[in-house]
Amino acid sequence: MKGNVLVGQSGGPTAVINSSLAGVFKTAMDRGFKNVYGMRYGIQGFLDEQYVNMADYVKNELDLELLKRTPSAFLGTCRYKLPAIHEDKAIYEKIFELLNKMDIEVFIYIGGNDSMDTIKKLSDYAILTGATQRFIGCPKTIDNDLALTDHTPGFGSAAKYIGTSTKEVIRDCLGFSYKKKNVTIIEIMGRNAGWLTGAAALSKAEDCDGPDLIYLPEIPFDVDKFTAKVEKLLKQKDVVVVAVSEGIHTKEGKYICEFSAGSETKDAFGHIQMTGTASYLANHIHEKIGCKTRAVEFSSLQRSASHLASRIDINEAFMVGGAAIKAADEGISGVMVVIDRLSDDPYQSTTGVYDVHRIANGEKLVPREWINKEGDYVTDEFVSYLRPLIQGDYAPMMVDGLPRHLTMNTKGYKDLYKVFVD
Questions:
Q1: Per-residue pLDDT tens digits for 187-222
Q2: Can the peptide bond before residue 403 be classed as cis, meaning omega within 30 degrees of 0?
Q3: CB 317 within 8 A of CB 13
């Protein structure tokens, strides 16, 4: 008889991370695994023996569909960096002692670059000690910066939100611009990779000109040149809208947000907290040019707007969760599931697996040829790559006018079952 599955979620959540969790759970049950246990708050919570049985919360198909539509991480996440094996062997001994006690056969970790580092280290330790557990990485990140996969679950929905919201911000700016010069700076997530910021170009259509400028972190940012471009644009039009990545930096490597009063707090992986880029640039433009300015940070809305999730994204997130279980069931370990694009029109994709050592701690950046020569916009090729990923909708389950989510507290859900079952 097969053993149990342990699954965790790590890093920043996405609008579809729980669809991958649903894919893991359903496929594991369909394939005859005994139980699917969920780590509360990732590997950090697991070290404190915090876990739940997913069957206590997903009791039927309706629960499964509700989970797929729930934003944030149902199980909770963490940003916890496992030490190198030679630095703290005791932590690994404790983890594997718990895995053995719980009869865990398969360990699935849903996350991004840092999470794949965890899979790499655990699979290495298993090989070193002869442990039989199998370790599989399941991709997740709105940043779309994981290597070897065409794209990552979570990115398409975040891009859909960014394209939509950028279009709405532009419309708002144009609505009260009569004889008033104004500049709006939109700050979008993306530390070193500009995939998300480039998605602002999706707003360009017959009914919208899109942002005037788009700046990605792949190209060094020059504040003086930026100011000159904005000033030139204001001579031609009353409204200027600019999309910038939170991670844009000078040619010396200093993040623009570091010029502001943003936090210098670092996480376990040494990443500084990104905030304040748009505010700094808006204040700078106001001081240099004197026009009205506004800073807009999409912030966590980019990763939590499940009401705007892409159907393609939801379905692929579910698909990679299932593929992770299938790979483990076939005896594979130490890999991450990837998405391979088969065609654009009609859009089709499938899954594969790659050695996690080729992925962990890497970073996939926007190709230089997908950024224009001036470094202030993305090309048509970038938009063509992105557009299939935002297609389709996945309507929330609405109760009393608002979306209903699956949580650890299922008390009072009779109204939901009455609406969707009776």
A1: 999 889 999 999 999 999 999 999 999 999 999 999
A2: no
A3: no
Portions of the chain given CATH number 3.40.50.460: 155-304
Q: 65 and 395 in contact (C-beta within 8 Å)?
A: no
Burial 286-307 (b: 16+ CB within 10 A, else e): eeebebebbbbbbeeebbbbbb
Who contacts 404 (Cβ-Cβ below 8 Å, separation ≥6)?
66, 396, 397, 398, 413, 416
User: Are 344 and 384 within 8 A, CB to CB?
Assistant: yes
Residues 155-304: name the CATH superfamily. Answer: Phosphofructokinase domain (3.40.50.460)
Given 63, 114, 117, 143, which residue is catalytic?
143
Instruction: Name residues whose C-beta falls within 8 Å of residue 198's C-beta, 6 or more positions apart in sequence.
Output: 214, 216, 366, 370, 378, 382, 386
pLDDT over 80 (residue 283)? yes
Give the single-character DSSP code of 379. -
For the whole prediction, is pTM greater than 0.70? yes
d(CA 226, CA 77): 38
Whether the per-residue pLDDT at 164 is higher than 90: the answer is yes
**pLDDT exceeds 80 at position 391:** yes
- Residue 208 and residue 217 in contact, taking contact as beta carbons nearer than 8 Å: no
| Closest listed residue to residue 137, CA positions, set 273, 384, 336 | 336
User: Residue 410 has which token pair?
Assistant: 């299922």
> How many Cβ atoms from other residues are within 10 Å of residue 411's Cβ?
6
Q: Does domain 4-153+306-361+395-401 have CATH number 3.40.50.300?
A: no
Q: List, by residue range, all CATH 3.40.50.450 domains of the chain.
A: 4-153+306-361+395-401
The residues pairing with 107 across neighbouring beta strands, listed in sequence order, are 6, 135
- Which helix or strand (DSSP H or E) is residue 101 part of? helix 89-101
Q: Which residues 6+ apart lie within 8 Å of 83 measured at CB?
A: 91
Express each pLDDT in 167-187 by its tens digit.
Answer: 999 999 998 766 689 999 999
Active site residue 103: no
